[in-house]
Amino acid sequence: MSNQEIISEALNLPLADRLFIVNKLVESFNPMNVELEKKWLDEVHKRKKLLKSGEIKTLSYQKFFSEN
Questions:
Q1: Which of these, 49, 48, 46, 30, lies nearest to 38 by C-alpha position?
Q2: Under DSSP, is residue 30 helix (H, G, I), strand (E, B) or coil?
Q3: What is the rounded CA–CA span in Å between residue 46 and residue 3?
Q4: CB neighbours of 57 closer than 8 A, spacing ≥ 6?
Q5: In sequence order, which residues have a C-beta less than 8 Å from that of residue 13 and are 6 or more positions away?
Q6: CA-to-CA distance for 25 and 10, rounded, in angstroms?
């Protein structure tokens, strides 16, 4: 199967399937670093906990960009 045939077939897939394929292709250029991914996930959970507890507040993008 040629590249053009693969692309034609892929373009006929449902959106969710095309997104899955795109994601896999992008990941192939920059394989996930499991250790780094775990650190990011830990950070996300930490920030979520801080937000829920009220220890930190969010800032709208309008306010952020007007202040910086």
A1: 46
A2: coil
A3: 44
A4: 51
A5: 21
A6: 13
Contact 10, 18 (CB under 8 A): yes
Total structural domains within the chain: 1
Question: What is the span of the domain harbouring residue 46?
Answer: 3-67
Residue 14 · residue 3 · CB < 8 Å = no
Residue corresponding to tokens 């250029």 = 29
Tens digit of pLDDT at every position of the chain (68 positions): 999 999 999 999 999 999 999 999 998 998 889 999 999 999 999 999 999 999 999 989 998 898 75
Helix spans in the chain (H): 3-11, 15-29, 34-53, 61-67
